[in-house]
Amino acid sequence: VARPPLPEPPVTPLAWRGGWRDGALELLDQTLLPAEERTLVRRASADLVGDVQRLAVRGAPLLGLAGAYGLVLAWREALDAGGGADRVHARFDASASALARARPTAINLSRAVEASLRAVRGLGGDARGEALLACARELELREREACAAIARHGAEALTGRTQVLTHCNAGALVTPGLGTALAPLYLLHHRGTPVHVWVDETRPLLQGLRLTAYELGRAGVPWTVISDGAAPGLMRAGAIEAAIVGADRICRNGDVVNKVGTYAVALACHAHGLPFFVAAPRSTFDAATATGADVEIEERRGDVARYLLTGSTPGDLRTREPAFDVTPARLVTAFLTEQGRLDPAALPASIFATDAFA
Ligand code: MRU
Questions:
Q1: What count of Cα atoms within 13 Å lies in the side-chain half-sphere of residue 224?
Q2: In this predicted structure, what is the pLDDT of residue 313?
Q3: Is 49 helix (H, G, I), strand (E, B) or coil?
Q4: Would you say 278 and 245 are in contact if contact means Cβ atoms under 8 Å apart?
Q5: 261, CA 20 to 30 Å: which among 72, 91, 144, 225?
Q6: Strand partners, 24
Q7: Average of pLDDT values for 192-200?
Q8: pLDDT at position 285, please?
Q9: Ligand 1 atom at minimal distance to the Cα of residue 298
Q10: Which residues, 6 or more positions from 57, have their beta carbon under 8 angstroms from its beta carbon?
Q11: Which residues line ligand 1 (CB under 6 A)?
């Protein structure tokens, strides 16, 4: 029996059920994984904003989808609250901007909200609700297709390299498909090509330890978690042959903004002559951001204490917790996108989406 060309995603992090009038957004609460698989059912946009901020729903492509589906909730609320057209629109606009600004670094979120708003300009009532839901569904489809293409291009780029390092979580949990950085690894495993994933635990929120290991495990892909600082030593020992990570934003000059610690992985790959791949869909490339220096880097507060020091926190603990860092384009071997393998020094204009749906 022939195998399907692509495996099924090992997990579904988000799903809209129903129509725009009666529907709800279901989310897998990623803060509880891997201990508990709890589905949240959201009908209020403010609840969704809270979910985004506490990272129950997270990762660049999924944040875009949360924003797009969140607008459907926001429009319904605005209509249900009543009042004249001005009041309805003012209420909707306030909810839309709360969604767009819920987290600052991944471009996908604000871009998806803005693109949906552009697409429904001039529409009201039921027509606007239906159009917002259609936008979100279209974005979901495009992101799923992008994952499939990234899987194929990434599998080719990794040919001959079995021992692959990843940082943070850029898999099925952050997309409606196979993921970005993890997609090629799922495909290689599905084809029967030996692959083993070294998973940086990813301080301080442990997305690698909690989430990447969880979803690789569900798919049966062999993995080993290491502390973030262990990777360079393993590279020197010859245990790691390549690194592949996702991205929250890719700037016009090719700088990559991704989970804090990514820059260190890129430097270590460079020092050891290993390829450093960045896998991302077009919705993460942002021509409006010239370089990494122009990106607002989210600062977390108290995550170190919450995740790493529970029970033994010094009373006067002071921390600085940037959630992301910038990897300069010159350290990137290649971008793996739905348009194929791209050279950071020669990014085509076509990779910089002007619209989330274009
Ligand atoms: O803070 P998070 O968990 O939303 O961070 C996002 C990430 O997991 C990574 O930075 C990832 O590589 C980009 S999302 C494909």
A1: 12
A2: 62
A3: helix
A4: yes
A5: 144
A6: 17
A7: 98
A8: 97
A9: 1
A10: 13, 14, 27, 30, 48, 51, 63, 66
A11: 55, 58-60, 168-170, 174, 180, 207, 245-248, 258-259, 323
